[in-house]
Amino acid sequence: MIIIANILKKIIDILLTLVIIIGIVFVFLFIIRIEPYVVLSGSMEPTLHVGSLSFINKNYKYEDLKKGDIIAYKAETKVLVAHRVYSIEENGIITKGDANESDDGLSVNKVNYIGKNVFNIPYVGYAVRYIQTPKGKIISATLVTCLIISAFIFDDDEKKKEKKKKKKTKKNSKTEESEEENENKKE
Predict the structure, then answer these.
(1) Residues 26 and 51 in one domain
(2) Does residue 78 share a domain with residue 3?
(3) Taking the chain, what is the end-to-end CA distance rounded to the nearest angstrom?
(4) How far is CA 95 from CA 34, 60, 74, 109, 152, in A?
(5) Which of 46-50, 59-63, 85-89, 147-151 has the lowest mean pLDDT?
């Protein structure tokens, strides 16, 4: 029973540590204006898979873009699009999805440009999309709450065990002292 409790404690500690690290990384990325977006279509396959989490650097200057860069922009339909720079013209940028037959035409300018793709994590976007649903939010909040509560429960159990050990140690040392005193009196 104690072994199982120790294993559960370690698992909970690891999961809580991962949640904290991921949270810190995301906060840091937001501070430096690198934001995640979920890839919803296959127009950039195989570079950006459907369900990938694409991180867009919003600090990257429009003027510094070059042919071949993957950029994010708002299309006329207000949908976020991530496509490759196909060519740079005087009055804007023409983009094209890697899996598309034709380019998007003159689709990007300084007004609708969002940023440049810096990296992506394949398939993680599926989990992010699920977490954004009402059901996903409830499940996520419940899991995090359970992790935190169980960490406190196991932590309290550890503290109780340590107190018991200290009491036993004190009793043993007192017993040894009184035995020594008795022996000294006999002499």
Answers:
(1) no
(2) no
(3) 48
(4) 21, 17, 12, 11, 52
(5) 147-151
For residues 90 and 20, membership in a common domain is answered with no
- Mean pLDDT of the 176-186 span: 59
**What is the token pair recorded at 39?**
């890839």
For tokens 């440049």, what's the residue?
Answer: 116
The pLDDT score that the predictor gives to residue 170 is 59
Q: Is residue 5 part of a domain?
A: yes
The model's pTM = 0.72
Is the pLDDT at 142 greater than 80? The verdict is yes
Does 149 fall in a domain? Answer: yes
Q: Which residues contact 131 (CB under 8 A, 6 or more apart)?
A: 137, 140
Q: What is d(CA 104, CA 110) in angstroms, rounded to the nearest whole number? A: 16
- Asked which of 1-5, 45-49, 67-71 is least confident by mean pLDDT, the reply is 1-5
Number of domains in the chain: 2
* 68 and 105 part of one domain: yes
CB atoms near residue 96 (< 10 Å): 19
Judge whether 66 and 109 are in contact, CB under 8 Å: no
- Answer yes or no: is pLDDT of 184 > 60: no
Q: Which domain holds residue 151?
A: 1-31+134-158
For the chain, the helix, strand and coil percentages under 3-state DSSP, each to the nearest 5: 50, 20, 25
Q: Are residues 46 and 79 in the same domain?
A: yes
